[in-house]
């Protein structure tokens, strides 16, 4: 990302933006064996990618002993929430901890960025206690300061600070398992992806998705609006429809933070050989774009992020080059992106695509810089070995779907 883009961005989205940084939390913690359990959970939940994609951050770490109050006692999704409360979106070194004005402050955590944190639960209270001690607790009313600062682990000013604390910070409700609901199609329908949901069911591809849950699943669900603006899908054969739908999922867990720092070519469930049905990614500020070789699609929303499953809503159907590219296949290719245009490629100009309904696209504000098809997709340098290796935890896929859709469903209802 060009420096100019970074600055441009800073002007727009102040606090929570992502810049690919130089630090590697996995590397930092690997130097201290007493944090190996914590470190392993950061990797399994991919919080490490999220941490590495941000600057001006503080990670409160737990040693093996204190981590044992969480480890193995809760589903991975719950542990992810608990650990995301320990990632502060501000830089606190020991000096700054002891100089908090008024002796107490609330600070934003990574949990707050998920959009699932009710009330004040995404914030942490940092308080300078008497006698040089620093206490941490949930900012939710009535919470105790249930954790104390013990020592500094590492500082890279002012990018990342790693501090040890002596107990997890538990916000009300985060440890309690959600009530069961396992209906992916219902979830997609509710989120405005009805067409996609019904295609998954009628083609049987939903079963393929479910079969990979144990080793991880990432779904890119196009919105209903996205289906107004595509080549004629009825010309596809049954097998091609299956490929198209399989192209919308990965057999691994790649939450947004992981897609943000991704530099590799990503295999999808439709990938049937090297360089087939794969994707590349690019970022523009906090936005992530997927590139198929035909056109970009933006991650519009995270519907579910419950390790090891993540479901995104995307604003365009992912059109694989194998079905819609180059060769005169069932449908004409969408716009080839012209490089010098300052308009983001994801916004089709009114001149080209004639959608039946002339409605403003449900796209947010224009990203500051155009994602181009050229840059990331033309560099298939390091072919990613994307097989999820951390299948260390075994879950029943139904149990997982049961657990995972609840939170999302609840948050959609709220
Ligand atoms: C801090 O982050 C910035 C921006 O990513 C980077 O340029 C700089 O080298 C980093 N500083 C250190 C000491 O790593
Ligand atoms: C971070 O460090 C770990 C352990 O040293 C390494 O396996 C991993 O590839 C590194 N990640 C990045 C993004 O460089
Ligand atoms: C910490 O726990 C992990 C497993 O949870 C273990 O492999 C590691 O050896 C432990 N390290 C120390 C220093 O106790
Ligand atoms: C943090 O918690 C302490 C103890 O409960 C409380 O006295 C203080 O007001 C809280 N700080 C903030 C900024 O809410
Ligand atoms: C944190 O420190 C305070 C002040 O010394 C003490 O009262 C409290 O018990 C400590 N809490 C924990 C969890 O260690
Ligand atoms: C899931 O929801 C859809 C519609 O929302 C419904 O047709 C289907 O029967 C439900 N499936 C299960 C297993 O409850």
TrEMBL record:
Keywords: Cell membrane, Glycoprotein, GPI-anchor, Lipoprotein, Membrane, Proteoglycan, Repeat, Signal. InterPro entries: FAS1_dom_sf (IPR036378), FAS1_domain (IPR000782), Plant_FLA (IPR033254). The keyword Lipoprotein applies. Residues 1-22 form the signal peptide. It is found in: Cell membrane. Residues 335-387 are annotated as: Disordered. Residues 335-373 have a biased composition (Pro residues). Residues 22-169, 180-318 form the FAS1 domain. It is a lipid-anchor; GPI-anchor. Coiled coil: none annotated. It holds the Pfam family Fasciclin. It comes from the Eukaryota. GO terms for cellular component: plasma membrane; side of membrane. May be a cell surface adhesion protein. Belongs to the fasciclin-like AGP family. This is FAS1 domain-containing protein. It comes from Eruca vesicaria subsp. sativa.
